Each structure stands twice: as C-alpha cells, then as structure tokens.
Amino acid sequence: MIPVRIGAREESTHVATAQPAVKLTYEDYCAAPADSRYEMLDGELIMVAAPNLEHQRVQIRLTTRLELFIEDRALGTLLTAPCDVLLSDNNIVQPDLLFVSRAREHLLHDGQKVQGPPDLVVEIVSPSSEMQDRGKKRALYGKHGVTEYWLVDPVAETVQIHRLEDEILVPTRTFGREETLRSPLLVGLELRLDDIFSS
To answer: What residue segments make up the domains of the chain, in order of their start?
Structure first.
C-alpha cells in the first residue's frame, strides 16, 4: 500500500475493503498549499480557478456600489474574495462578495475568517463554477442560514435573488438589463444593472 497525502491526513490506496471516504476538516484546509485558492465542500477540497476578466469587472462594479450604500448607512461589513467563510468544520467557502450586518458582527471577531453564515452572499457565475454556485453551494448556504443569495450571471446579464425559507434558498426575482435591483435585505438599495453590466 502506498500512502497518499490528503491535506493533513494520510490515506491508503488499498481498496480491498469498502470504507467511507474521509471528510477533510478546517485543519486540513489550513494545511493546503498557499499558492492556490481552495474551498471545501462537504469535506472535499476543491481548487478555485482564477476568474475571467468580465467576472472581475462585474465584481468591482458591484463591490463599489454596495460598499458606498452599506458604509453610508453604517449597516455592517462588506467583504470580497478571497475571504474564508467557515460554515462548518467541513464546509469553507470563499464567496465573491459577502455582507455581515452589524447585528451579526460577532462572526468577524476572529479576525481571520467569517465564523458562520453571512447575511448576504453574492456569487458571480463562470463556466468553471456555475454548477457548484447553482447547486451544492446554494444548498449549503441555505442549510447554514444565509438570508439572501445573489447569483450574478455576466453572460445572461442577470442577477437572481434567492431568499431563505426553511433552510432552502428560494429564487424570488431575477433582474436584467434596464432594470433596477432592489433587495429585501438591503432596504433602500437601488442598483441599476446597466451600470453593472456595461461594456
């Protein structure tokens, strides 16, 4: 048997007996090589590809406008990737943007990571992340109590808002070009999508 190093644990390549796969933990996540970005979904370490240029442009526009709105009203803290969000010992994510309200600032006291579900998570989908963002990550965010989830699609030029209902993030509204996004969570926000998706 040849040992294979996975995070901070050793596994055997011997497959004579069926055993459940070992789920990695936050400790293993911290031991991953620092030269790449990772997320951990259900104990599986996943390398995160660098975003393309349109993703970056959309992220900067969203960040600029949301930060002005949140800071002017002293609503809480807006953070951008890479920023670790510890949903559980086996689930560590790095959303493109996240917002933690003043009422939940205790999640930031560690100073290293967000220790629990943010109020708002924004994921900008790309070909390499779309299935995870729409599937497993959306389910995880709901299970762990994220109040509002935005799926931003730079190709379709849409933002789909999901709201938490009984641990499930349910799509409530999709906004497109020539529309103004309004959020149930960020009352008073008016985000012109033509400004976000402008060429």
So the answer is: 3-48, 53-196
CATH number of 53-196: 3.90.1570.10
User: pLDDT tens digits for 16-63?
Assistant: 445 557 889 999 999 998 888 999 999 999 998 888 999 999 999 999
> Alpha carbon 19 to chain centroid distance?
31
The 10s digit of each residue's pLDDT in 86-110 is 999 999 999 999 999 999 999 999 9
φ/ψ of residue 167, rounded to 5:
65, 15
CB atoms within 10 A of CB 174: 14
- The first and second tokens of residue 172, run together, are 């409530």
- Measured in residues, the chain has a length of 199
Please name the helix (run of DSSP H) or strand (run of DSSP E) that holds residue 69, with its range, or none.
helix 53-72
Are residues 26 and 84 in contact, defined by beta-carbon separation less than 8 angstroms? no
Q: Which of 125, 115, 137 is nearest to 174 (CA)?
A: 125
**Rounded Cα–Cα distance for residues 136 and 107 (Å):** 23
Rounded to 5°, the CA angle 191-195-199 comes to: 150
Strand blocks (E) in the chain: 3-6, 9-12, 37-41, 44-48, 76-80, 85-88, 91-93, 97-101, 120-124, 148-153, 158-165, 168-176, 180-181, 191-192
For residue 97, give the nearest of 127, 133, 131, 73 by alpha carbon.
133
Q: What is the dihedral of CA 50, 70, 105, 184, to 10 degrees?
A: -90
